[in-house]
Structure formats: structure tokens, C-alpha cells
Amino acid sequence: MQLFLESFWPIVWGGITGTIPLALASFAIGLVLALAVALMRLSKNRVVSGIARFYISVIRGTPLLVQLFVIFYGLPAVGLVIDPWPSAIIAFSLNVGGYAAEVIRAAILSVPKGQWEAAYTIGMSPATTLRRVILPQAARVSVPPLSNTFISLVKDTSLASLILVTELFRVAQQIAAFSQEFMLLYLEAALIYWLFCLALSGGQTRLEKRLDRYVAH
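The chain above was modelled as a monomer; its predicted structure follows.
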């Protein structure tokens, strides 16, 4: 019990200074990439749409761990060496982009076509219509699935420990290696991940309720 209490804050701090920043940075970059890929998927140009479809297929069809290892351990073979933190951010961002792209595409398609037509009748360009009319409505629809993606990403950041990124699970591993109490420390890490996810789920629920106020029923 003493080891559990003594290690609790260091592991939590590893989550605050490592896991959460890594997840936030990767998710933010991944969302920008996802929006671009979603718009490419919606393009009438077959080449552009095909490139986006291929990217999504590769990301969804290969394990995140393999993607991470290709970037960190594979790229040096062709002369491109990337430090652990940037490697993790690149891998997680690409992964988020592949999954979130389909969420955003579906959200955009869920907006009635009449919204586009109404915007065109008052002289809005397609780009302005997308930015001012379509995306705000699509954003509300996509909040639940994108929130779930972020919560999953927080848990997936534990894979970064395999390339020596200091985050929640890496701290737990270091303490476990020193104390030899592997079961206790790994269960403690699982508990802290669970607490983090509970907090994020609570924030997701409040955000959804807040957005729901502005929707007519």
C-alpha cells in the first residue's frame, strides 16, 4: 500500500506532463489532417478522392503500433531520424487523421442539401458556405464520435512508452522495474488511465448538453 501511495502522484504527473500534452497535440494536428482528407474524399476529382481513400484504408488497415515503429525505427533506415516525441506525435496524428476523416465526412454529409442551396441563393461561395454554414452544423454532429476518438487516443498514448517517450505508462514501468512490483504498478497505471477517461467522458457529456441547447427539437 505504501508503494501504491508513493507512486500515485509520480504516475499521475507523468500523465499530466506527458500523456495529456501528447494526446492534445496529436489530436489537434490529426483533426486538421482529417478535415483536409474528408474534403478530399468528398471531391468529385477521382484522383484526389482516391488518394484520400487510400490513406484512410492504410491507416485503418494497419495497427497503430506498426505505424509508430515504422516512423521511429523504420525511417532511420532511409536516413530520416526523428526523436521519440515528434515520432509519437506524427504517428498518432496520422492515425487520428485516418479515423476522424470518415467521422467528419459523415457529419458534413448529414447536413441537408437545402443548407447549401439556401447559402448559394444569397450569394455565398462554396468555400464560404462550407466555412460559415456547413462546418458549424457538422461540428455539432461530430462531437460525440470525435470525443470518443480522443479518449481512445489518451489510452493509445501508452504505446509511446515503447519508443521511450516519458508519459504515464513509462513512469509506471520505471517504478515497477526499480521496485519489482509489476502487478501493483501496472494495475495502478490502469486505474489512473480509467480516472482520466472518466474525467474526459464527463467533459464530453457536458459539452454535448451545451451544444444541444442550440438545437431545435
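The radius of gyration is 21 Å.
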